[in-house]
Prior knowledge:
Blueprint: E1 14-15, H1 18-25, E2 34-39, H2 47-52, E3 56-62, H3 65-74, E4 79-82, H4 90-93, E5 99-103, H5 109-118, E6 125-131, H6 132-139, H7 149-155, E7 158-166, E8 171-172, E9 179-186, H8 196-207, H9 214-217, H10 219-222, H11 243-258
Parallel strand pairs: 2-3, 2-5, 3-4, 5-6
Antiparallel strand pairs: 1-8, 6-9, 7-9
Helix pairs in contact: 8-11
Amino acid sequence: MAQVRAKKYLGQHFLRDLEIARRIAESLPLREAMPVLEIGPGTGVLTRFLLENPLINLTAVEIDRESVDYLHIHYPSLKLIEGDFLKMDLNELYDDKFCVIGNFPYNISSQIFFKVLDYRDKIPCVCGMLQKEVAERIASKPGKKAYGILSVLIQAFYTVDYLFTVSEHVFDPPPKVKSAVIRFTRNEVQHLDCDEKLFKTVVKTAFNQRRKTMRNSLKPLVGKENPMYEDAIFDKRPEQLDVESFVYLTNLVEKALKI
């Protein structure tokens, strides 16, 4: 561990509890052999358990040069890519389906999940640890304070399970917040029944002013005066709407924009 310094700009907090690492590795619901991509293996505390699973064909991607050198020495059999996950073309890496796992850097976890959504037809399952607050946001149901943009966009295509909470004291250095392990599994929705690009815009616009009713929060998109506002859905606030309601709303907005 001493050979790798945790770097604040990379959001590194190295897990040192092997039991938690084992539980994360076992959270992948594999029933058959499957390629798995680990993001940010760091010093390999999770990697060691993934390599032990005969169903996992593991590849890891790491941006930190010190970690890369450490992993080459301690896990010489590991297929390791030195690079930035957020900049990778995953179609060049995988022809077929693969799972994603990791102790995700807190500062880019949301960006990681947005990228997963871009490749959702290839990624049937994601497991990993991230900041507890973000995990609660992703897993939250409509009507809850934590429910927001990530909740809607991820739950449109994945079933989310909040698995367990992790204390800040099992990391080196310890973060200032608690962590959580979540899993999301691809649902049966292939395409939303609306313009998916507009859907994302509607969701983001709505939650940018989450305390307002939909009638007021969507004015930047559609304007102040429009017949669609007569629909009762515009009396609600964004946290009251589930995925299907946002699909319905997107179709209303699309029609209004064409008038």
